[in-house]
Structure formats: C-alpha cells, structure tokens
Amino acid sequence: MSDLLGLRPGPAADLVSFDGEGHPVLVVEIRGRTLRELSDRTSQYLKDASPPVPFAMMVNPTVTRLLDGSRSPASVVQEWRTADLLTPYDPDYSHKQIFPFYLGILVEAWLRDLATRWKSEHPPGEERLASLGLLERLKGVTTRSSRALS
User: Fold this and answer.
1) Of 5, 48, 67, 103, which has the most beta carbons under 10 Å away?
2) Does the N-terminal peptide bond of residue 88 adopt cis geometry, omega within 30 degrees of 0?
3) Domain boundaries, position 25
4) How would you label 32-64 residue by residue, b for 16+ Cβ within 10 Å and e otherwise?
5) Which residues are within 8 A (CB) of 138 and not within 5 positions of it... i.e. 6 or more apart?
6) Structural domains in the chain (count)
7) For position 149, what pLDDT does the model report?
8) In this structure, are residues 47 and 72 in contact, taking their beta carbons and an 8 Å threshold?
C-alpha cells in the first residue's frame, strides 16, 4: 500500500484514512509540539495526490487542526482543543504527559469511533465534521498508521 500511494513512515503521513476504493480521504500529522503548518512532505503529497486528498489534520497534545486539503496551501477550516476530542478515549488525558506515539493511538481510536461508533453514539467533533463533509467520508474508512504503511 505504501508504494502505491507514495506514503512513507515519518512526517508525510502518521495516519491515513482510506475510503472503500482505497483513496485517501484524510492525512494526519501527529507531533509532540505545536504545529504551525504542515510539513513540506505532507504539503507536497497533498499537491501531488490524484485524486486529491480532501482533508488533512495536524494534531499535537494541545491543538487539533483540520485543513482543507484541496487548497494549496491547505487552509485551516476547524480547530479544537485536543483534550476535548480525546478525553473519551483516555479519561486521564489532561492529567498526564502525552507522547506522540500514544497521541497517534488515541487519534486513531477517535477516527475509528467516528467511522464505526464503536465507543460512543456521538463522538466528539461529529457535528462540525458533518457540516464540513468529512464525517460522511469517514464512514466505513480504513485508517492506517505509518507503522502499517511501511
């Protein structure tokens, strides 16, 4: 899968959500520090992707930003406090240090919950994601981490 999509472990894609036809609908960068913009590799991937990847996300322990991946450069369309999105998957989220690897696991759990409702009937952020058109695209997706893409 990684060769087909040109995705490699590292900054280009920490998580990727694929639709039923195998096209990426969301590319996620996970970092342990503040992200002001997407990495050069992710930005280039979004530019080169065919068909275009509609959404990108930057996540750090404090802030999660959703970007319109179809614009160049990708622009922020929504911002949340990361704790508001991920506390349902770790009730102690706000009371401990969160490292990037674990943050990726929590984000993957949240994305799977949005796709399948395995944890909650109304996962955090679903209303805004629905209004942006991402929630519908997440139904039935497969989300893979860079570990699984290598």
Assistant:
1) 67
2) no
3) 2-149
4) eeebeebbeebbebbeebeeebbbbbbbbbeeb
5) 17, 25, 26, 111, 114, 115, 129
6) 1
7) 44
8) yes
